Amino acid sequence: MTSLFIAWRSYRAALGTWWRASTARPLYHAWLAELWALLPAFLRARLDVAPDTRRIDWPLVEALEPGTRVTLVLPGREVLCPPVSLPAAAARDLRAVLGFEMDRYVPYPAQQLYYDARVVERQGDKVRVQLVVIPQARLDTIIQACHGRGLTLAGIDARADDGRSLAVDLLPPSQRPRPAPGRFLDRGLAWLAAALLLLAMLGLLHQRDAELERMQQAVQGQRQALAKLEAVRRELLNTEGAATYLAGLKAARAPLASVLADLSQCLDDDTWLEQLEVSENGELSMSGQSSRASSLISQLKQCRTLGEARFQGVIQPDAGTGRERFSLIAQLTKEPSHGASPDQP
Description:
The structure is a single chain. The protein has 8 helices and 11 strands. The chain is an alpha+beta fold and 345 residues long.
């Protein structure tokens, strides 16, 4: 638990260092100031979200009313700004790392200094750090002078030799003013905005996933419909092929009515049929009784719709009728065209 707390403090310190060096910080404060100005006076007095803070230079020249909240800006001659280059991993806890290695950059131990630092530039696995150092005794004297004037210090910044702000805070952490109650509201609103932004992003992701799932279901439905259509097409092709095959068979053999009419002319009056069957391969089988069964083969040769007639089994006499029982097999032939004469081959 202790290691987790230390890691959290290190993360907060690194985040604070990054925020102080960020170019978005002045824009954020300007935006807050604009929002603060839009609030009614009674609400500003109640919340006290953004108390007025003035930036003044040291040494103090301007006469200010006691209790004025100020950010003191030290001139470049009051501070030391040695160039520092550190590994990128050191940016996670910049103050702790610099506290251990302060004697490498200034001729004073860290216990005798007030310092602050911020990351200026990242160069691969290195970071360039802006380190600002001032002796404790000198800064304590400056702080006492400000307190003697009745001023409330909100922070202590410094200027570089060219006059630009170094964007640091040299005020000791123990002397920094506690955040106003409205600052907690400010932080709460910031966290709420971040949470709402996260929820909006999650909502967009959920909506995208739902849309993707809907499109996948639509594609799956189209695939199923296409599969059904393909099955119907194959069934239609099979049905068409079967119809074509049956039509070919019908065209290749004589109709059953023609076969019966032909048989009635070929067979004599002493012959009658008890069974007649036509198979799918065009084979005709018949059985019955006749007074002269042995002459049936020659009689069937006169039939135009039959050929290859032969007996199936032997001819047997029927004691009941006195006739001969027979069984024949023949092959159906194609019926001749209507224009052909019966005598033509």
